[in-house]
Amino acid sequence: MSRVIHSARLIDGGHEIADSWLVVRAGRVTARGTGDSWRDALAVAPVDEVIDAQAVGGPRAVITPGFIDIHGHGGGGAAYDDGAEAIRAARELHRAHGTTRAVISLVTASVDDLAHRVAAIADLTESDATVLGSHLEGPFLDPGHHGAHDPALLARPDPDAVARLLEAGRGTVRQVTIAPELPGATAAIERIVDAGAAAAVGHTDADADAARSAFDAGATILTHAFNAMPGLHHRAPGPIGAAAADPRVILEVIADGVHLAPEVVRIAFAAAPGRIALVTDAMAAAGSADGDYVLGALAVRVEGAVARLADGTIAGSTLTQDAALRTAVAAGVPLTEAVVALTSTPARAIGRHDLGSLAVGSTADVVLLGADLHVRRVWTGRV
Questions:
Q1: How far apart are alpha carbons 105 and 237 in whole angstroms?
Q2: Which residues contact residue 40 at a Cβ distance below 8 angstroms, ignoring those fewer than 6 apart?
């Protein structure tokens, strides 16, 4: 299917271009421009579909690259831990909210169970290019900052466990969260990076020095910054300060109005420009009703769209990425910067530099939003 999308504000690469158009053929962006020049392009080679962005999205309609979520656990009532069909169901929900591609995050389980799940995700990537691989958020976490992970299942990052999980993924493990103060963590980070995955600092009691050592060993992501880690103190910057000060590191931010105050979202963008990835950390209740759910091995109660364990601990979110966009913009983040945090920055975080852009020749993952930043249409291209 070939199409032209015209009369839109194009937000891409940190810039806004008014009255823009794109031509898409065979799942790729083959031309783009402004004004009525799209008519000249079609005179040379017609398309199957002509879409007036303002007719679909209203005045000041926006088109952006497809959103990329590098940290989410489910949605639409389905949890990613429950296998291929659950992943497909949850992905359908998030795609409707603009997330054209996603990394599948797994909560802490036994190494045996995680190896099985990572292998199943590797199988799924072979038939579904919108599944970018897996993220092991556990089990290599600090027991004192376990969050919504079962502390009884946490483990040290010993070489055999790390190797087994990476091998099970057959090159599709994209991210592994690790507390760098654990015995063996530095060697594990180096092994993870050597395997082509991103090592992430998170669920940690690390101080700034320990975080810096992890970054020097190759870690390049801070898992959901500010959450499940020491806070930012003016004399003890901790992992947040170490990550914000290091140009090699991308900071995940959950902009759901619960995990972070609006002022903190704005501060994070200001402190690490171009290095914020807006993630959902969504669990099964995203896009579904309040009620009782399970996250990994733990019971979760969702009330008022906020997910918590019985002791009150936040247990993931019910966020979608279009809602994260609206929250960030409402917090004072420029729209162009917020879109970068949903597109090219998360793509870069996992080494997928071919995604997150609508430049000519790029994969035509496109989201059309109204001026209110609610999604109107979503298209997924071909890799």
A1: 28
A2: none
Tokens representing residue 215 in the block: 């970054």
Query: What b/e string do you get for 290-305 counting C-beta neighbours within 10 Å, with b at 16 or more?
Result: eeebebbbbebbbeeb
* Cα-only R_g, the chain: 20
Task: State the pLDDT confidence band at 297, using cuts at 50, 70 and 90.
Answer: confident
């389980």: which residue's tokens? 109
Q: What is the mean pLDDT of the chain?
A: 97
- Is residue 114 within 8 Å of residue 337, measured between CB atoms? no
**Number of helical (H) and strand (E) elements in the chain, helices listed first:** 12, 20
- Burial readout 200-227 (b: 16 or more C-beta within 10 A, e: otherwise): bbbbbbbbbebbbbbbebbbbbbbbbbb
At 176, list the tokens: 């592994």
Question: Six-digit token pair at 140?
Answer: 């290599």
Q: Which residues pair with 12 in a beta bridge?
A: 15
What is the C-alpha to C-alpha distance for residues 148 and 316, in angstroms, rounded to an integer? 7
Residue pair 202/228 in contact (Cβ under 8 Å)? The answer is: yes
Using DSSP, state whether 67 is helix, strand or coil. Answer: strand
The answer to whether the beta carbons of residues 376 and 370 sit under 8 Å apart is yes
Statement: residue 383 has pLDDT above 90: no
Asked if 107 and 295 count as a contact pair (C-beta separation under 8 A), the reply is: yes
CB 231 within 8 A of CB 240: yes
pTM of the model: 0.97
Q: Report pLDDT digits (tens) over 210-260.
A: 999 999 999 999 999 999 999 999 999 999 999 999 999 999 999 999 999
pLDDT band at 146 (very low <50, low <70, confident <90, very high): very high
Q: Residue 139, preceding bond cis, omega within 30 degrees? A: yes
Question: Is the pLDDT score of 308 beyond 80?
Answer: yes
How many whole angstroms separate alpha carbon 68 and alpha carbon 103?
8
**Residues forming the active site:** 281
